[in-house]
Amino acid sequence: MRPLFRALVLLLLTLAPAALASCGSSTTASGETELSFWIRSSGSSYTKPLVDAYNKTHKAKIKLTLIPDANFVQKFGTAVAGGNAPDIVAVDLIYLPAFSQSNQMTDITDMAHQLSFFDQLSPSHVRLATFNNRIYGLPYSAEGSILLYNKTLFKQAGLDPEKPPTNWAEIEAYAKKITALGNNTYGYYFSGRCAGCNAFTFLPLIWASGGDVLSDDGKTPKMDSPAVKDAFSFYKKLWDEQLVPKGAKVDNGSEGLNAFTTGKIGMVGSGAFSIGSLKKEHPNIDFGVSYLPGKDGGTSSFAGGDSIGIPRGSKHSAEAFDFIKWCLSDDVQIEQFAKNGSIPVRTDLATNKYSQLDPRYVVTSKAMAQGHTPYSVHYNQLFNDANGPWIGAIQHAVFDGKVDEALNTAQGHFTQILAEK
Fold first, then answer.
1. What does the pLDDT look like over 326-352, one tens digit per residue?
2. Measured between alpha carbons, how far is 306 from 128 in angstroms, rounded to an integer?
3. Is residue 266 a contact partner of residue 164, using CB atoms and an 8 Å limit?
4. Is 354 left (phi over 0), alpha (psi -120 to 50) or beta?
5. For the chain, which has fewer Cβ within 10 Å, the N-terminal or C-terminal residue?
6. Which residues pair with 89 in a beta bridge?
7. Residue closest to 223 by CA, chosen among 210, 234, 214
8. Segment (H or E) for 36
9. 307, 90 Cβ separation under 8 angstroms
């Protein structure tokens, strides 16, 4: 049985009864319905004020529970298997294919299609929440991968700070000029030992070039395809030409943005989260945001974030969907999300009164909207495992210089994982 599915079907006995008692819905002292809502701890900053706002204006109340990110899948799977699931759950969208296939979520297809803005919801979120043409979740929070670049270094290197690279040749050329500035300055950066980071910022280079590492249905690997080889060879070239600092080889993801904040990195793949962080904590850095380009042009993005849905067994699905619908409304998307620096999950709200104050948010919103996300019940094993085939291929191809060998090996490992039942 796959590790993810094992987590989804753990026996109720693995959790103490007291821990499970708070999972389901209940009734407050005043007789109001109380809905339990589980999210990953990393989403607390924007979810807490959201829940407070809802509770002030609605008869039904939301009881928020924060689950450590690393424990979320196991705790959720155990709760559903024991009949003690929360009424509402928000989880990384990459898990929705497995949750849906395992019958962990409630079918909300009919309610979803009744939303007047359904066609404006983040396409990747909806796609990953769809199984057998039925919908089991909707977008909750959004993230899109982008190219972050240092405008000051661009100027010092004789580059136009308003013209970021639009293809790989320009990335290489710009990186050479920035690295030539010396004083431990480098043109490009990526976290060489971070599996998830490189799915987020490296896969878009492949997608923008017309390639992919999986078939559209997620069942067939394409790691040995020409477009994938080109992308790995490109990263190898940046490394061989010493346009990336040596420390990147062993970075597990903890130094990606930190490296950029030193002011010594010209370009790095990042996400919308970096905009608010840089503005608040490093106001001295003059930075730009652009799209991750393809080999000869084109753009793409990894559409990330969380999806929200109703776990199987919820006794208050109508009230739960009311909360979901409220979260997706114009006012909440703008005044709760956009106002606080988050990307709206509706494409029709990408440009709003808050994003217009900083065009960099518009870029990330548009990147997310045109983005892609791999659809696979094996996502964790393929792309997130620190010892998995994806990061293994990057290490072997880029740093050991064995591109063909690395991709052929990865193709075999992908095939084995995808064949598991």
1. 999 999 999 999 998 888 999 999 889
2. 11
3. no
4. alpha
5. C
6. 38, 309
7. 214
8. strand 33-40
9. yes
For 132, counting Cβ atoms within 10 Å of its Cβ (0-12 exposed, 13-18 middle, 19+ buried), the class is: exposed
- Segment holding 362, helix H or strand E: helix 359-369
User: Cα-flanking dihedrals φ and ψ of residue 290, to 5°?
Assistant: -140, 180
What is the three-class DSSP state of 35?
Answer: strand
User: What angle, rounded to 10 degrees, do the helices at 403-418 and 226-240 form?
Assistant: 130
- Predicted TM-score (pTM) of the model is 0.87
Tens of pLDDT, residues 277-314: 999 999 999 999 999 999 999 999 999 999 999 999 89
Q: Which two tokens stand for residue 258?
A: 């930190």
- Residues 128 and 96: beta-carbon distance below 8 Å: yes
Say if residues 124 and 64 touch (Cβ distance below 8 Å). Answer: no
In this structure, the number of other CB atoms found within 10 A of the CB of residue 220 comes to 11
Which secondary-structure segment (H or E) carries 306?
strand 303-309
DSSP annotation of 347 reads: G
Let me know: does 168 contact 293? Beta carbons within 8 Å. Answer: yes
CA quadruple 235, 236, 240, 244: dihedral sign? positive
The helix/strand/coil state of 22 is coil
- Backbone φ and ψ for 181, nearest 5 degrees, come out as -65, -20
DSSP-H helix ranges across 251-352: 256-261, 273-281, 317-327, 330-332
How many residues are there in the chain? 421
Distance CA 309, CA 89 (A): 6
pLDDT confidence band for 16 (50 / 70 / 90): very low
CA distance linking residue 83 with residue 71, whole number of Å: 18
Tell me phi and psi for residue 344, to 5 degrees. Answer: -60, 150
* Pairwise CA distance, residues 309 & 305, whole Å: 14
Q: Measured in Å, how far apart are the chain's first and last C-alpha atoms?
A: 7
pLDDT, one tens digit per residue, over 75-112 is 998 999 899 999 999 999 999 999 999 999 999 999 99
